Amino acid sequence: MIRFGIVGGGLMGHGIAVALAEAGFGVVVHDPDPATLASLGERVEQALERGGTSPDDARIVAQRVTAARTLAALADCSDIVVEAVPERLEVKHVVLAALEERVSAVTPVWSNTSVLSLTEVAEGMRHPQRLVGVHWWNPPYVIPLVEVAPGRETDHRFVQEACDVLDGLGRTTVRLGRDVPGFIGNRLQFALVREALYLLEQGVCDAKTIDTVMRASLALRWPAVGPMENADFIGLELTKDILDSLAPHLSARTGGFPVLDALIGAGHRGRVTGAGLLPWPKGRDEDVARRLDAGIRDNLASLRNTRSA
């Protein structure tokens, strides 16, 4: 049985650990922050509870996740290492350099970067051929999609091995043909966010209206039919006509978002400060978390029904 080591025990690190442990794998997690490491067990248990795992099964799964106080201790017992540290190149370079001092040259390393170029993440590695981009979606123990991509120097044998392992876990695994910042999902997601911010800046509507339109239209369609299938469904001539008419009016901004700059400058950073694009009164964060979890599960059920139809 493969044993996984995860470097970084934060939001994604502990979530990936839960997903792997639920599949029966042993997982060792290291984080340089003692507080993060100390709370690992509690957060794993909370994730299992939110994921709907029965108490008896949760105890068994939680026992498969252990903490490693040092990177050396993690390296000694890991067949595959997952890098899940913050999305800053300098941090990833330091962690990967330290990791390569302690693991075999043939030990696969999976980076959970969600927006960085994997080729840039691999810069400075002695063995960049074993680095594979393996991007899980949050929460990893609920959302089945995992995006897998090579860097410029990645040996495709490691990519295939990663896909084989993930397929064996029952994940929805997609393999990219080449390295691209943001993989597929985040590029699509933040293209939509960019247009939403543009609509705000142009005074077309407020933030609440954007969310209402999204939840009452596109969000109802996309779990069943994706944008490519829908383009074929309505006809490519109509799709082209719409794009020819609409594309010149869409935002093409590549930097600088005044609406965000103004809010951040005023100290309104979203949920953590009580205000952002929307107000965040007490209790709204718990409500959003519940709705998000329930919505994902409902959509997953609908997706399964669609596939079996």
UniProtKB/TrEMBL annotation:
GO terms for biological process: fatty acid beta-oxidation. The record marks H135 as: Important for catalytic activity. Residues 5-179 form the 3-hydroxyacyl-CoA dehydrogenase NAD binding domain. Pathway: Lipid metabolism; butanoate metabolism. Residues 182-277 form the 3-hydroxyacyl-CoA dehydrogenase C-terminal domain. InterPro entries: 3-OHacyl-CoA_DH, 3-OHacyl-CoA_DH_CS, 3-OHacyl-CoA_DH_NAD-bd, 3HC_DH_C, 6-PGluconate_DH-like_C_sf, 6PGD_dom2, NAD(P)-bd_dom_sf. Keywords: Oxidoreductase. SUPFAM superfamilies: 6-phosphogluconate dehydrogenase C-terminal domain-like, NAD(P)-binding Rossmann-fold domains. GO terms for molecular function: 3-hydroxybutyryl-CoA dehydrogenase activity; NAD+ binding. Belongs to the 3-hydroxyacyl-CoA dehydrogenase family. This is 3-hydroxybutyryl-CoA dehydrogenase. The lineage of its organism: Bacteria, Bacillati, Actinomycetota, Actinomycetes, Kitasatosporales.
